[in-house]
Design brief:
- By secondary structure, the protein is mainly beta.
- The chain has 1 helix and 8 strands; from the N terminus they run H-E-E-E-E-E-E-E-E.
- The strands form 2 sheets. It has a 5-stranded antiparallel sheet, with no helix packed on it.
- Strand 4 and strand 5 form a beta hairpin.
- The radius of gyration is 20 Å and the shape is elongated.
- 16% of the residues are buried.
Length: 173
């Protein structure tokens, strides 16, 4: 299971409150600073899927990226791997045909890719799918570059030809 620490979020909220208080007390002729809005990391795994499907995240690993994996000017980064396990309690099979992946850091950087996904979840069956996410930074003073969300959108059809969309948001911390 993915676990999210609230320490960074509390510090970010406190810093945002401090900036907001400072801005609100400035005279009208003064300079106003608008803090950059950063989307928060979901506090837990979030899934939207048909009721007969259950989704679990297993085998989560987080490793620092090696110098070989980093491209200039990147100085640090992390690599996450896990399995998204689909369990079909229904009577209709599902063909998963495409996976859209977006990695979004707290600092606002996003990276997306699409890959074909020739996979099937049989009725009453279980299917694991391995996924990876990477976050890296050239600014070691900005930890928000190395925390974020991995958004997965699985697209396919069921055996009756109905479209299936499964959304999974996994916090990266």
């Amino acid at each position: 299971m993915w676990k999210v620490s609230t320490g960074l979020l509390r510090r970010t909220v406190f810093a945002g409150m401090a900036v907001g208080i400072a801005v609100s007390t400035m005279p009208f002729g003064g300079c106003a600073y608008t803090p950059r809005q950063e989307s928060p990391v979901p506090p837990r795994l979030e899934v939207q899927a048909p009721a007969y499907l259950s989704i679990a995240i297993q085998g989560v690993t987080k490793q620092p990226m090696t110098e070989r994996e980093l491209t200039p000017p990147q100085k640090a980064g992390f690599h996450w791997e896990c399995e998204v396990v689909f369990q079909n309690a229904g009577t209709v099979g599902i063909r998963l045909e495409m996976l859209r992946m977006t990695v979004r850091s707290l600092s606002g950087t996003t990276s997306s890719r699409v890959q074909s996904l020739p996979s099937r979840v049989e009725p009453g069956g279980s299917t694991p799918i391995s996924v990876q996410a990477f976050l890296s930074t050239s600014d070691l003073g900005n930890p928000a570059d190395l925390v974020g969300t991995h958004e997965l959108v699985f697209l396919g059809t069921d055996d009756q030809g109905r479209p299936i969309r499964i959304d999974v948001q996994v916090p990266l911390e």
